[in-house]
Please model this.
Amino acid sequence: QNKNLLQLAINKPYESVGKDAAGLLFHLGGSQLIWNVINGKDTSLQNNLLGALASVGSKESVDMLQTIALSKKYGLSLRKQAAHKIGNSGNGEDRVLAILKNKKVPAELIPDVVASVSGAWLGSVRTEAASYLPDNGKSTTGKPAPAMPQLLALNANGAEGEKIFSANCNVCHQINNIGYDFGPKLSEIGSKLPKEGLLEAIVHPSAGIGFGYEGWVLKMKDGTALSGILASKTETDIDIKFPGGAHRQLKTSDVVSLTQMKQSMMSEGLYNNMSTQDLANLLEYLERLKKK
Model:
Protein backbone atom coordinates (compact mmCIF):
# COMPACT_ATOMS: atom_id res chain seq x y z
CA GLN A 1 0.00 0.00 0.00
CA ASN A 2 3.02 2.33 0.07
CA LYS A 3 2.27 3.76 -3.36
CA ASN A 4 -1.27 4.56 -2.24
CA LEU A 5 0.07 6.23 0.91
CA LEU A 6 2.41 8.32 -1.22
CA GLN A 7 -0.45 9.45 -3.43
CA LEU A 8 -2.56 10.31 -0.40
CA ALA A 9 0.26 12.40 1.04
CA ILE A 10 0.61 14.25 -2.27
CA ASN A 11 -3.12 14.79 -2.75
CA LYS A 12 -3.89 15.88 0.84
CA PRO A 13 -0.65 17.57 1.99
CA TYR A 14 -2.21 20.04 4.42
CA GLU A 15 -4.82 17.74 5.93
CA SER A 16 -4.26 15.34 8.81
CA VAL A 17 -4.85 12.35 6.53
CA GLY A 18 -1.98 13.48 4.28
CA LYS A 19 0.35 13.96 7.23
CA ASP A 20 -0.61 10.58 8.67
CA ALA A 21 -0.07 8.92 5.28
CA ALA A 22 3.42 10.44 5.02
CA GLY A 23 4.26 9.38 8.57
CA LEU A 24 3.05 5.84 7.93
CA LEU A 25 5.04 5.74 4.71
CA PHE A 26 8.25 6.32 6.70
CA HIS A 27 7.19 3.71 9.26
CA LEU A 28 6.64 1.12 6.54
CA GLY A 29 9.97 1.69 4.82
CA GLY A 30 8.64 3.74 1.94
CA SER A 31 11.07 6.66 2.18
CA GLN A 32 12.63 5.77 -1.19
CA LEU A 33 9.29 6.49 -2.86
CA ILE A 34 9.43 9.98 -1.36
CA TRP A 35 12.99 10.46 -2.60
CA ASN A 36 11.92 9.39 -6.08
CA VAL A 37 9.47 12.30 -6.18
CA ILE A 38 11.95 14.76 -4.68
CA ASN A 39 14.58 13.73 -7.23
CA GLY A 40 12.09 13.98 -10.09
CA LYS A 41 11.13 17.00 -12.15
CA ASP A 42 7.49 17.61 -11.19
CA THR A 43 7.67 20.68 -8.94
CA SER A 44 3.96 20.49 -8.08
CA LEU A 45 4.32 16.96 -6.69
CA GLN A 46 7.50 17.96 -4.86
CA ASN A 47 5.90 20.98 -3.19
CA ASN A 48 2.81 19.03 -2.13
CA LEU A 49 4.93 16.24 -0.68
CA LEU A 50 7.06 18.72 1.27
CA GLY A 51 3.83 20.11 2.71
CA ALA A 52 2.89 16.67 4.03
CA LEU A 53 6.39 16.00 5.38
CA ALA A 54 6.47 19.30 7.26
CA SER A 55 4.06 18.24 9.99
CA VAL A 56 5.15 14.59 10.38
CA GLY A 57 7.79 15.61 12.90
CA SER A 58 9.75 12.35 13.05
CA LYS A 59 13.54 12.36 13.00
CA GLU A 60 13.54 10.81 9.53
CA SER A 61 11.16 13.40 8.08
CA VAL A 62 13.10 16.32 9.61
CA ASP A 63 16.36 14.77 8.38
CA MET A 64 14.90 14.62 4.88
CA LEU A 65 13.77 18.24 4.91
CA GLN A 66 17.17 19.33 6.19
CA THR A 67 18.99 17.31 3.53
CA ILE A 68 16.89 18.83 0.74
CA ALA A 69 17.32 22.35 2.07
CA LEU A 70 21.07 22.16 2.58
CA SER A 71 22.10 20.06 -0.43
CA LYS A 72 23.37 21.96 -3.47
CA LYS A 73 22.26 19.13 -5.75
CA TYR A 74 18.72 20.60 -5.65
CA GLY A 75 17.53 23.84 -7.19
CA LEU A 76 17.26 26.91 -4.98
CA SER A 77 13.47 27.01 -5.28
CA LEU A 78 13.05 23.48 -3.91
CA ARG A 79 15.65 24.12 -1.22
CA LYS A 80 13.81 27.25 -0.08
CA GLN A 81 10.53 25.30 0.05
CA ALA A 82 12.13 22.67 2.29
CA ALA A 83 13.86 25.30 4.44
CA HIS A 84 10.53 27.03 4.96
CA LYS A 85 9.07 23.80 6.37
CA ILE A 86 11.84 22.36 8.58
CA GLY A 87 10.48 23.95 11.75
CA ASN A 88 6.80 23.08 11.28
CA SER A 89 6.90 20.42 14.05
CA GLY A 90 8.22 20.11 17.59
CA ASN A 91 11.30 18.16 16.52
CA GLY A 92 11.67 20.54 13.59
CA GLU A 93 11.83 23.54 15.92
CA ASP A 94 14.69 21.93 17.83
CA ARG A 95 16.46 21.16 14.57
CA VAL A 96 16.12 24.72 13.31
CA LEU A 97 17.80 26.12 16.43
CA ALA A 98 20.55 23.48 16.19
CA ILE A 99 21.47 24.08 12.54
CA LEU A 100 21.34 27.85 12.97
CA LYS A 101 23.56 27.68 16.05
CA ASN A 102 26.04 25.39 14.27
CA LYS A 103 26.09 27.71 11.22
CA LYS A 104 24.99 25.00 8.80
CA VAL A 105 22.48 27.22 7.00
CA PRO A 106 23.73 29.27 4.03
CA ALA A 107 22.94 32.97 4.21
CA GLU A 108 20.37 32.89 1.42
CA LEU A 109 18.28 30.29 3.31
CA ILE A 110 18.45 31.74 6.83
CA PRO A 111 15.25 33.85 6.41
CA ASP A 112 13.34 30.75 5.20
CA VAL A 113 14.60 28.55 8.04
CA VAL A 114 13.73 31.26 10.59
CA ALA A 115 10.29 31.68 9.01
CA SER A 116 9.63 27.96 9.46
CA VAL A 117 9.31 28.49 13.24
CA SER A 118 7.24 31.68 13.01
CA GLY A 119 4.24 29.67 14.23
CA ALA A 120 6.05 28.12 17.20
CA TRP A 121 4.08 28.33 20.43
CA LEU A 122 7.20 29.05 22.45
CA GLY A 123 8.18 32.68 22.07
CA SER A 124 11.76 31.74 23.06
CA VAL A 125 12.04 29.58 19.92
CA ARG A 126 10.87 32.40 17.66
CA THR A 127 13.14 34.92 19.35
CA GLU A 128 16.24 32.74 19.28
CA ALA A 129 15.71 31.83 15.63
CA ALA A 130 15.15 35.48 14.67
CA SER A 131 18.46 36.43 16.32
CA TYR A 132 20.26 34.67 13.46
CA LEU A 133 18.75 36.93 10.80
CA PRO A 134 21.18 39.33 9.11
CA ASP A 135 19.56 42.26 10.96
CA ASN A 136 19.63 40.30 14.25
CA GLY A 137 15.88 39.91 14.09
CA LYS A 138 15.20 43.61 14.46
CA SER A 139 12.65 43.52 11.65
CA THR A 140 10.60 40.94 13.56
CA THR A 141 10.50 42.84 16.82
CA GLY A 142 6.91 43.29 17.87
CA LYS A 143 5.44 46.75 18.12
CA PRO A 144 4.51 48.01 21.60
CA ALA A 145 0.91 47.31 22.55
CA PRO A 146 -1.37 50.36 22.50
CA ALA A 147 -2.07 51.83 25.92
CA MET A 148 -5.60 51.65 27.32
CA PRO A 149 -6.26 55.42 27.07
CA GLN A 150 -5.30 55.30 23.41
CA LEU A 151 -7.78 52.46 22.79
CA LEU A 152 -10.58 54.08 24.81
CA ALA A 153 -10.21 57.29 22.79
CA LEU A 154 -11.30 55.44 19.64
CA ASN A 155 -14.90 54.85 18.56
CA ALA A 156 -14.93 51.07 18.97
CA ASN A 157 -17.30 48.87 16.95
CA GLY A 158 -18.28 45.56 18.53
CA ALA A 159 -19.66 44.13 15.28
CA GLU A 160 -16.29 44.71 13.62
CA GLY A 161 -14.64 43.22 16.69
CA GLU A 162 -16.57 40.00 16.16
CA LYS A 163 -15.05 39.78 12.68
CA ILE A 164 -11.58 40.29 14.16
CA PHE A 165 -12.27 37.49 16.63
CA SER A 166 -13.39 35.13 13.85
CA ALA A 167 -10.27 35.89 11.84
CA ASN A 168 -7.73 35.64 14.66
CA CYS A 169 -9.09 33.91 17.76
CA ASN A 170 -11.71 31.26 17.08
CA VAL A 171 -9.16 28.62 16.06
CA CYS A 172 -8.52 28.29 19.82
CA HIS A 173 -11.60 29.75 21.55
CA GLN A 174 -15.35 29.20 21.44
CA ILE A 175 -18.10 31.76 21.90
CA ASN A 176 -21.59 30.27 22.21
CA ASN A 177 -20.31 27.00 20.71
CA ILE A 178 -18.91 28.79 17.63
CA GLY A 179 -15.17 28.29 17.16
CA TYR A 180 -12.84 25.52 18.26
CA ASP A 181 -12.54 23.89 21.67
CA PHE A 182 -8.91 24.39 22.67
CA GLY A 183 -8.42 27.37 24.96
CA PRO A 184 -10.88 28.75 27.52
CA LYS A 185 -14.44 29.38 26.34
CA LEU A 186 -15.19 33.09 26.15
CA SER A 187 -19.00 33.25 25.99
CA GLU A 188 -19.16 35.19 29.28
CA ILE A 189 -15.67 36.70 29.39
CA GLY A 190 -17.07 40.25 29.67
CA SER A 191 -18.51 39.36 33.07
CA LYS A 192 -15.11 38.19 34.28
CA LEU A 193 -12.70 40.79 32.92
CA PRO A 194 -12.95 44.52 32.17
CA LYS A 195 -11.32 45.92 29.03
CA GLU A 196 -8.05 46.48 30.92
CA GLY A 197 -7.97 42.82 31.94
CA LEU A 198 -8.85 41.67 28.44
CA LEU A 199 -6.01 43.73 26.99
CA GLU A 200 -3.56 42.30 29.52
CA ALA A 201 -4.65 38.74 28.66
CA ILE A 202 -4.10 39.38 24.95
CA VAL A 203 -0.76 41.16 25.29
CA HIS A 204 0.69 38.99 28.09
CA PRO A 205 -1.05 35.59 27.85
CA SER A 206 1.59 33.81 29.95
CA ALA A 207 0.95 36.09 32.95
CA GLY A 208 -2.17 34.15 33.91
CA ILE A 209 -2.63 30.65 32.48
CA GLY A 210 -6.00 29.16 33.37
CA PHE A 211 -6.03 25.89 35.32
CA GLY A 212 -6.41 22.98 32.89
CA TYR A 213 -5.08 25.01 29.96
CA GLU A 214 -1.38 24.56 30.65
CA GLY A 215 0.69 23.59 27.62
CA TRP A 216 2.72 20.37 27.62
CA VAL A 217 5.54 19.03 25.46
CA LEU A 218 5.49 15.27 24.94
CA LYS A 219 8.57 13.43 23.67
CA MET A 220 7.60 10.14 22.07
CA LYS A 221 9.49 6.86 21.75
CA ASP A 222 9.48 7.20 17.95
CA GLY A 223 11.48 10.43 18.23
CA THR A 224 8.60 12.82 17.54
CA ALA A 225 7.55 15.67 19.82
CA LEU A 226 4.01 16.93 20.41
CA SER A 227 2.81 20.18 22.00
CA GLY A 228 -0.71 20.67 23.25
CA ILE A 229 -3.12 20.71 26.19
CA LEU A 230 -3.88 17.51 28.09
CA ALA A 231 -7.60 16.85 27.87
CA SER A 232 -7.17 13.79 30.09
CA LYS A 233 -4.41 11.56 31.45
CA THR A 234 -4.55 8.15 33.11
CA GLU A 235 -1.93 5.53 33.88
CA THR A 236 -2.49 3.97 30.47
CA ASP A 237 -3.85 6.69 28.15
CA ILE A 238 -3.37 10.35 27.28
CA ASP A 239 -5.76 12.54 25.30
CA ILE A 240 -3.96 15.61 23.95
CA LYS A 241 -5.71 18.39 22.07
CA PHE A 242 -4.32 20.89 19.58
CA PRO A 243 -5.34 24.30 18.21
CA GLY A 244 -8.28 23.82 15.88
CA GLY A 245 -9.90 21.35 18.26
CA ALA A 246 -8.11 18.23 17.03
CA HIS A 247 -7.46 15.45 19.54
CA ARG A 248 -4.98 12.60 19.56
CA GLN A 249 -5.19 9.50 21.72
CA LEU A 250 -1.83 8.22 22.98
CA LYS A 251 -0.64 5.33 25.07
CA THR A 252 1.22 6.53 28.15
CA SER A 253 3.79 3.79 27.52
CA ASP A 254 4.71 5.48 24.21
CA VAL A 255 5.62 8.75 25.94
CA VAL A 256 9.26 9.19 27.02
CA SER A 257 8.83 12.50 28.82
CA LEU A 258 6.09 14.97 29.66
CA THR A 259 7.16 18.57 30.36
CA GLN A 260 4.90 21.47 31.29
CA MET A 261 5.51 24.69 29.35
CA LYS A 262 6.25 27.84 31.28
CA GLN A 263 4.63 29.91 28.55
CA SER A 264 0.99 29.97 27.54
CA MET A 265 -0.08 28.03 24.46
CA MET A 266 -1.49 31.36 23.29
CA SER A 267 1.30 33.07 21.40
CA GLU A 268 2.42 36.51 22.50
CA GLY A 269 2.33 39.27 19.92
CA LEU A 270 -0.99 38.33 18.32
CA TYR A 271 -1.97 41.98 18.52
CA ASN A 272 0.86 42.76 16.08
CA ASN A 273 -1.43 41.51 13.31
CA MET A 274 -4.10 44.06 14.24
CA SER A 275 -4.35 47.80 13.86
CA THR A 276 -5.07 49.86 16.97
CA GLN A 277 -8.65 50.26 15.74
CA ASP A 278 -8.98 46.48 15.25
CA LEU A 279 -7.77 45.86 18.81
CA ALA A 280 -10.21 48.44 20.19
CA ASN A 281 -13.04 46.76 18.26
CA LEU A 282 -12.04 43.33 19.56
CA LEU A 283 -12.00 44.53 23.18
CA GLU A 284 -15.42 46.14 22.68
CA TYR A 285 -16.83 42.87 21.36
CA LEU A 286 -15.34 40.74 24.14
CA GLU A 287 -16.48 43.11 26.90
CA ARG A 288 -20.07 42.79 25.68
CA LEU A 289 -20.03 39.02 26.24
CA LYS A 290 -21.85 39.02 29.58
CA LYS A 291 -23.43 36.29 31.66
CA LYS A 292 -27.16 36.21 30.95
Remarks:
- Confidence is low (pLDDT under 50) at residues 137-141.
- DSSP finds 13 helices and seven strands in the chain.
- The beta strands are 174-175, 178-179, 215-220, 225-233, 237-241, 247-251, 255-260.
- The first strand starts at residue 174 and ends at 175.
